[in-house]
Amino acid sequence: IAGLGVEGGVIRYGMESARPELDERRDGMITASHAGEICRDKSGKGWGVATEKLVLRVAHERLTGKTHKKPTGSAATDWGHEYEDEAALYFEKVTGLKCLPGEFTIAPPPLQIIGGTPDRFLQNGHLQIKCPYTVEVVMANLRAKTPPLENLKQVWFEMICMGEGTVGYWASYDPRIAEGAPGKIKIIETTRDDRF
Question: Which pTM was predicted?
Answer without folding.
Answer: 0.71
